[in-house]
Amino acid sequence: MFLYKKDFLKPADFIDIFGHLEIPKLLYKGLLDNQIIDDIVSNVYGLKEGLVLKGVSEGKVWMVKVKTQDWLNKVREKYGINNNIE
């Protein structure tokens, strides 16, 4: 959630404020490392597409999407994309 003229709401604050609503389930809280990314890509969590990871560094919120290999394969199959974007 973007706060006008402020920045994005920090992930922990978002959960505190909106956690009682039907928001996507929090799957992991901790330091981002290669194992978490590998688990997402390998689809250890049984995801449909992937995850949006959010964090805070030097007071600024950052976000990144990580797609499962299953999803990437389906997209490549459907649209005939054969390049190795991973």
Order of strands in the sheet with most strands: 1-2
Task: Give the count of structural domains.
Answer: 1
Beta-strand percentage? 15-25%
Nearest-integer average pLDDT: 86
- In which range does the helix fraction lie? 25-40%
Secondary-structure class: alpha+beta
Question: Total strand count, please?
Answer: 4
Largest sheet: 2 strands, antiparallel
Number of helices: 3
Question: What is the rounded distance between the termini?
Answer: 28 Å
Looking at the structure, what is the overall shape?
elongated
Q: In sequence order, what are the helices and strands, one letter per element?
A: EEHHEEH
Report the uncertain regions: none
Radius of gyration: 15 Å
Note down, in words, how this protein is organized:
The protein has 86 residues and is of the alpha+beta class. The protein has one domain (2-79). It is 31% helix and 23% strand. The chain is built from three helices and four strands; from the N terminus they run E-E-H-H-E-E-H. The chain has helices at 11-18, 34-41, 69-79, and strands at residues 2-3, 7-8, 50-57, 60-67. A two-stranded antiparallel ribbon has the order 1-2. A two-stranded antiparallel ribbon has the order 3-4. Strand 3 (50-57) and strand 4 (60-67) form a beta hairpin. The longest helix is centred in the last third of the chain and has 11 residues, at 69-79. It is elongated. The two termini are 28 Å apart.
